[in-house]
Specification:
The chain is an alpha/beta fold and about 290 residues long. It is built from 11 helices and 13 strands.
Amino acid sequence: MKILKTPFAAVMWLSCLQLAPADTIVLKNGDKFDGKVLREVDGNYILEVKVSDTIRDEKIVAKSDVKYIDKETEDDKAFKKIEDFTPTPELLPKVAYEKRIEKVEAFISTYPESTSLSKAKKIHDYLTEEYAIVQNGGIKFGEEMVSADDYMANSYEYDATIAGKAIKKAGAELVVIEKKEKLIDKFPDLPITTDPSKLSTCNKVLCTGTTLLNDSLDEILSHCSSDAFVSIIGPTAGYFPDPLFARGVDVVGGRLVTNGAVLLQRLAEKKRWGDATQTTCFRKAIYPGLP
């Protein structure tokens, strides 16, 4: 049976329902309802059932038709909000780990007698173990945790694969130009070539700062189409961009050291040093030029 209420009363009714935990009512014929038993009348259950995320209705079900009622407690409802925190996704940042750990610890503190307590503690152990690696400069790559030392020793390979995945996920075509032929065999899943003329069909070109160090930038730019949007990024691109803009580059992104002592410490410890710098970005379209 439906209960008709005034608009104001209905809003209040729905708001209150969203705060209450839901039960699962399982009938003998296999049907299931998410809701609550409001009362019992003449051998029937009066159920408050979920129609949608914001709408509830009342339904009469004979007690004899009910197989069982699975009661949901407040801690069951709270646990549902953290049970999918593991396994964690690839490249989850440090701040995201901190937020997840904070919520799991809040559950453990609030519901110390919960039947899900042991599961919550396992989630907490999983997150804190991975967080310790990420906090020290490591990353989660695929399903594996990579220490800061391993990442620093193989950063080119990791960064290339990560970038390739991101570009493919965006649905874009990818062409990688590499001077070292041995790397072509090392990354069979990436479309790597030593032929820079392949850039002629690209409308966006992203160059690393290495092209400045190995003196290959001018050759790369000569193969880019006139309407291609060209960017150069990397720590070694942290200087005034005027000479690059004059060659047709559109964006230059680098890093500015903000804490020399921390930078030297991170380098000595073979850890990632991003927290000792800040990113810089110069765009040709709005760059005023040197005074």
